[in-house]
Write a structure and sequence with these properties.
By secondary structure, the protein is an alpha+beta fold. It has a single domain, classed as Ribosomal protein L28/L24 (Ribosomal Protein L24e, Chain: T). The chain is 26% helix and 36% strand. The protein is built from 2 helices and 4 strands; from the N terminus they run ββββαα. A two-stranded antiparallel sheet has the order 1-2. It has a two-stranded antiparallel sheet with strand order 3-4.
């Protein structure tokens, strides 16, 4: 599953496309993923993360170092 946010864990979900005549066909709702580079001054290096725009706002609010520390505690390699 390549379309997964590294911070929030959001994944594609399924649903229905509904036409004007109310015919339903299956479709996927994809998360708004962005590839973003951040500079981590505590380790003096750049890291690249695949994030949703919601996760980018989370990093702005809580700080990059705290988010990376939690991801490493969960076992992700960053």
């Amino acid at each position: 599953m390549a379309r997964v946010c590294q911070v929030t864990g959001k994944v594609p979900v399924g649903g229905n496309k509904v036409s004007h005549s109310n015919i339903k066909t299956k479709r996927r709702f994809l998360p708004n993923l962005q590839k973003k580079r951040f500079y981590l001054p505590e380790e003096d290096k750049w890291i690249t993360l695949k994030l949703t725009t919601d996760a980018i706002r989370t990093i702005n609010k809580r700080g990059l170092y705290n988010v990376v520390k939690e991801l490493r505690a969960q076992g992700q390699h960053i």
